[in-house]
Amino acid sequence: MYHTSQECHFPFNTRMKTSTAIVKNRSVSCKFGEKASMIPFFLAVLVVSQWNSAAAFQPQQHQRQQQRLANERSESLQLQLTSDNKESVTPVNPSRRSFLSRTATIGTACATAASSFLLVPPTPAYAASGAGDLKFVQSPSGLEWADAKVGSGAVKQTGEIAAVDYVMSTSGARYGAKIYSTADKNAPYRWTLGDGSTIAGLEQAVVGGDGIEPMRPGGIRRVIIPGNLAYASLGKQGNADECQVGKGVGPIPPTGDAFEEYQRFKNIYCNPNRPYQPDLVMDIKLYGKRAN
């Protein structure tokens, strides 16, 4: 700390004398004299006070900046491929461009650990490029598919119950592609094959047909589903009531603890004011008779 000295005058009709005012560790020496103004003294007090306020604010501002940077680093997307075939994801709300750049390496990771569940990427253009060793094939219906892992055992037949974990995404989204994951909630999606409760694209991905190989238990497959095999009916005017679990074709994110995911899904696939529906991207893991 240091001291500054400033001469000022008080309007007292007295002999000249000196007094010292201590203002937040800085001394201001003032002379009392006749018919002088107090304004310079008050200005000195104000300047010194403001200087101290600014000096006290700077460390707080620095702390806030450091905390914000730490939060941004901790919110970066982290994918951990684990031995029990489950994903651990800390999502953030990235821009679409940064999201695509981060997911570009996921396919390569799956090539070396194919038993691990996939995380969504991107767009049909990315899929068509075969990036990350996933070789996509397009069926006559327009559905594109690629296997990260081929399962084993008997294929599912119409009338049987299918259980899958999935990561639902979209090929077009402003704030990132991922919509919902059953793996995050430990709640596999189940339905009876052929009962009409599930979108045609997901059912076709499991049972096969139209040039698509059927999945086998333990298999992991990524599919890109066009609107006519997904949620085109939900996006029509007057069908808003069907955009709920149990009322329209599934899978639909639940409205309970996944409310934000449900709203994201609704805004994209149940919105009659949207000029078009982007393709649906799903990573599917098929279970056998028992699902975790």
Which labels suit this protein?
292 residues, alpha+beta, Chitinase A, domain 3, 2 domains, 7-stranded antiparallel beta sheet, 3-stranded mixed beta sheet, 7 helices, 12 strands, 27% helix, disordered N terminus, peptidylprolyl isomerase, PPIase_FKBP_dom, PPIase_dom_sf
Beta-sheet strand percentage?
A: 15-25%
Find the CATH topology of the largest domain.
Answer: Chitinase A, domain 3
What's the architecture of the largest domain, going by CATH? Answer: Roll
User: What summary fits the major beta sheet?
Assistant: 7 strands, antiparallel
Q: Name the overall outline.
A: globular
Would you tell me the overall average pLDDT? 68
Which stretches are low in confidence, meaning pLDDT under 50 for 5 or more residues running?
1-36, 69-117, 119-123, 125-131
